[in-house]
Amino acid sequence: MLFVLFVSGQLCFIKCYMYEYKYIEYLMTWTEAQEYCRKNHTDLATVTNMTDVKKLKTAKQRPKWHWSLPGLSFIKEEAYWSYGEPNNHQSELCVYLRENLTWVDDYQYCTMDQRFICYNGELKTPLNWTNAQRYCRENHTDLISGRQQLDQLNKTWTDNMKGKLSNTATRVFIGLFSDMWAWSNESSFSFRYWDPQSDRDKSCAVLTNKGMWSTDDCSENRPFICYKDHVILIKENRTWEEALYYCRHHHHDLVTITNMDEQRWVQEKTKNASSPFVWTGLRYTCTLGFWFWVSDEVVHYKNWASPGQGNECDMSGAMETGGEHKWFKKHDEEKFNFFCSK
């Protein structure tokens, strides 16, 4: 099931560092719109988080498990399913905790009001899964997501709290869900922003007048939104300096990552890399003793796997292609794939 966003109105152009959206006023079918975007831009618009939703406002695949928290990958081996679960993986569904803190997938209870846990670990007043997600995003961070957060919950909850869970709320929603939707560019972003009052029984997604998502027939003629990617993965193994010269000669520069949204956009591309790490534009200066971006951006946002230790001369920053996509300090002469900005 492919994913496109439609919106009505005048031509809209939104630019950001990693990518930009272009609103196209021509009326086309979904297939025609996809062909147009791929020919003239990069692809139909991909939405990864609430920041993108705000910017948008001014082929059917097997269901996949996703964490509600954007940028957090679901790792099958870390799942803590109850015995016999998941047992309903062919339907769109959500996950709740049992009293022993194991996971159960379900379709029926997703639309019913159940207690839920936000990222701060507190039980909340019953809501259905979609409204629980919205509540947590508006008032906290998101629904509790990731094995690390759930393990922490297990450690901090007392036996009294577990008893309370068992006696008053046998089903407690967490931020794990499965669906059949996929983005046109085949990225695996888990962010969803469905309008709870809208239909979801058609094959293509559209924007409602509230800036949320509904569905429509793919054969309808609608305006559409493309995006133009400003980041490219070069699948050639080069030293950091060779990568720098390549990007500056063929594109713009080695990529700069200044916030979590940009981190998510770049790390999605690492799944296509052919090396265990991918060079970025992060560099250490021995003369001044600090890390900097070659684009002259100050290093405010950081995603290091571990703090620096000892002599960091002749070191540059690379992102791991697996795991949590943390940054690692690597010697300049090592050879990896690299990211260029355009």
UniProtKB/TrEMBL annotation:
Segments forming domain C-type lectin: 15-119, 118-227, 226-341
Pfam families given in the database record: Lectin_C
The keyword Isomerase appears for this protein: no
Keywords assigned by UniProt, alphabetized: Signal
Annotated InterPro entries: C-type_lectin-like, C-type_lectin-like/link_sf, CTDL_fold
PANTHER family per the UniProt record, alphabetical: C-TYPE LECTIN DOMAIN FAMILY 20 MEMBER A-RELATED (PTHR45784), C-TYPE LECTIN DOMAIN FAMILY 4 MEMBER K-LIKE-RELATED (PTHR45784:SF3)
Record's protein name: C-type lectin domain-containing protein
Natural source organism: Oryzias latipes (Japanese rice fish)
